[in-house]
Design a protein that fits this description.
By secondary structure, this protein is of the alpha/beta class. The chain is built from 3 helices and 9 strands. It binds 1-O-pyrophosphono-5-O-phosphono-alpha-D-ribofuranose. 1-O-pyrophosphono-5-O-phosphono-alpha-D-ribofuranose binds next to β2, β3, β5 and α3.
């Protein structure tokens, strides 16, 4: 089996990474899975009286959310929440810096929280607590990646793209020190 880990030396050398090595999850597999999730989610929310509210966790989930939104066959609004737990390294700092909540009123609305990766679970659980204060009609979580080996807090995930082994990954919105989000596939950094 070919090695799916991507070697990246200096962070500044971002450009040569594009197209280098084999992704752990190719752009084509991601696209197929996101379409499936779009159908699943559209089925679950098919009978809503009001549009679904997709609350996207900045920044990593934006790429996934943009594709997921376009895979839905139901009306959906888009809101954003800012949370950050990583510094510039590959391990969580363990602290969730919660900075910015959504704009729109959420009381009585059906919320789909959209995340790129659930790792320790701290980010999502902090945001879920905040969102529940708005008394939504329902609150579910969709994540592109689930890395359960690093879980510290139990999190209910309703829609999962892929379960991941314990490796640091980049691409399709996920970063290392703010870079590599533009890669179309998901790569292991190591
Ligand atoms: C990453 C990722 C998730 C979170 C997952 O965000 O995008 O939001 O960490 O880790 P956890 O389950 O251990 O909390 P990050 O803080 O790197 O911010 P970013 O999305 O802006 O890159």
């Amino acid at each position: 089996m070919s090695d799916t880990r991507l070697s990246i030396a200096p962070v500044k050398a971002a450009a040569p990474v594009r197209g280098a090595g084999k992704p752990m999850i190719s752009a084509r597999r991601i696209a197929r899975r996101v379409r499936e999730l779009g159908h699943e989610i559209s089925d679950v929310y098919a009978d809503l009286d009001q549009p679904l509210v997709m609350v996207v966790i900045l920044k990593g989930a934006t790429v996934f959310a943009a594709d997921l939104l376009r895979s839905l066959s139901i009306p959906a609004e888009l809101e954003f929440v800012r949370a950050s737990s990583y510094g510039t390294g590959t391990a969580s700092s363990g602290r969730v810096k919660f900075a910015h909540l959504v704009e729109g009123p959420l009381t009585g609305r059906d919320i789909l929280l959209v995340e790129d990766i659930v790792d320790s679970g701290r980010t999502v659980s902090t945001i879920v607590k905040e969102l529940r204060r708005h008394h939504p009609a329902s609150l579910r979580l969709a994540t592109l990646l689930d890395r359960p080996a690093r879980r510290e807090i139990t999190v209910d995930i309703h829609f999962t793209g892929f379960r991941m082994p314990h490796r640091f990954v980049i691409g399709y919105g996920l970063d290392y020190a703010g870079l590599y989000r533009e890669l179309p596939g998901i790569y292991s950094l190591g």
